[in-house]
Design a protein that fits this description.
CATH topology of the largest domain: Rossmann fold
Distance between the termini: 48 Å
Shape: flat
Oligomer: single chain
Length: 400
């Protein structure tokens, strides 16, 4: 987009139209219009999609007139407002300075930059792609940011030429390799593991964002001075993994499993705590517990059992059970209604043919189990296929 297009998209007449018609079907709109307000219909359609995504993910952007949205894939890949704000909390907790100076070496659409800058006296945004930088700068101004300086260059070139020190540096490397589910920082752009020593010449604190697919122990081995690892989920969906590196730190990193939804939950442990936790196993009792995705991604499979005084169903079944109800458990809680129900019990419980079906360490998938018992999604009860000492079915009602 050029400056003329920025101007057209941010004018009041177009913004009035956009705010009033954001729910229009973008495909039908493109078929009916070649352009409107002097703007190609395809670009307008992208603004419809962007606003709908921002409404869910980026409230500040959605509620601000004049914001221009990038292609939807960029919004999907950017941080959400909740996770961006959480990053500012991390910095506030670990930096004892009221006059903060920070850097985002991988600026992108500018969501993290904007929220990180709000607690800084000065902030540096670095992005190698000129169109991306111009869009982020335009939106930052609309959002009221006045303390951000913009640099069109690579992370490596910026840090190699800088003569300044910073209270923190943030970097969100993009993947270069696309094969496989787990990748290394060395396969990213920039290669954080290689760049990190240079970063520590300019700061003592580096916050690195990684994909939820990254193996935590692998990441901790590749980076220096990892003090904290944050596994962050929103609405029980793991969104990102953050590595906080503090220059000179030599201890074992603390893993923080955080769910930002509703009543925020956090479970903290270390790799050695997990390794040394002694787990007791039992077949399903009165209550069934399923940890949230942050805990499962963090790998606190044994620690959850010992910390909350719960029995685990099986070494490879990450569900837990107890006779006594455990309040404030970070995940879903169910009351078990029936274990290994007979066919008549199934028909009685799911008389409307609806159930919420899930399987954990079970030979059939949820879809296969639904097909076997002719069930459709819905209803108030859950049907679990699990493995404890043996494979079994559970009927349960969610209570938390």
């Amino acid at each position: 987009m050029d400056e003329n297009l920025f101007s057209l998209l941010s004018k009041n007449d177009f913004q009035d139209f956009l705010f009033a018609n954001e729910h229009l079907d973008e495909r039908e709109f493109v078929l009916k219009h070649k352009n409107l307000f002097g703007i190609p219909s395809g670009i307008i359609a992208n603004q419809f999609v962007g606003r709908r995504k921002a409404k869910i993910k980026l409230g500040s952007f959605y509620n601000t007139r004049g914001i221009i949205y990038p292609p939807s894939i960029n919004i999907e890949q950017s941080s959400s407002e909740a996770t961006a704000k959480f990053k500012t909390e991390i910095i506030q907790e670990h930096v004892n300075n009221s006059d903060l100076k920070g850097v985002d070496l991988t600026g992108g659409f500018g969501v993290d930059s904007f929220f990180l800058s709000k607690n800084c006296s000065s902030f540096q945004y670095v992005e190698k792609e000129a169109p991306v930088l111009q869009l982020a700068k335009f939106n930052h101004i609309k959002l009221g940011a006045t303390n951000i300086e913009y640099h069109q260059t690579t992370a490596e070139d910026f840090i190699n030429s800088s003569k300044n020190n910073f209270d923190f540096i943030f970097v969100d490397p993009s993947r270069r390799a696309k094969k496989g589910r787990v990748y290394k920082f060395s396969e990213c752009d920039p290669a954080v593991d290689i760049l990190l020593p240079k970063l520590f010449e300019h700061t003592y604190l580096v916050l690195v964002k990684a994909s939820p697919l990254l193996d935590l122990q692998q990441g901790a081995r590749e980076l220096q001075f990892v003090k904290n690892i944050y596994v962050v989920s929103v609405d029980n969906e793991c969104k990102e993994v953050l590595f906080l590196c503090e220059k000179g730190f030599s201890g074992e990193p603390i893993i923080n499993c955080v769910d930002l939804s509703g009543n925020r939950s956090m479970v903290q442990f270390t790799f050695s705590t997990e390794k040394n936790s002694n787990v007791l196993y039992a077949e399903p009792l009165t209550y069934l517990y399923e940890p949230n995705t942050s805990i499962l991604k963090g790998g606190a499979f044994k620690y959850v059992s010992t910390h909350f005084n719960l029995f685990k169903l099986h070494v490879n079944t990450h569900l837990y059970t107890s006779h006594q109800f455990v309040e404030n458990f970070p995940g879903r809680v169910f009351k078990i209604e029936c274990v290994n129900p007979k066919e008549n019990d199934l028909k009685k419980c799911f008389s409307d043919g609806k159930a919420n079906v899930a399987t954990r360490n079970y030979p059939l998938s949820a879809d296969e189990l639904k097909k076997k018992f002719s069930l459709k999604d819905g209803g108030n009860l859950f049907l679990f296929g699990v493995t404890s000492e043996k494979r079994m079915l559970l009927i349960a009602k969610r209570i938390g």
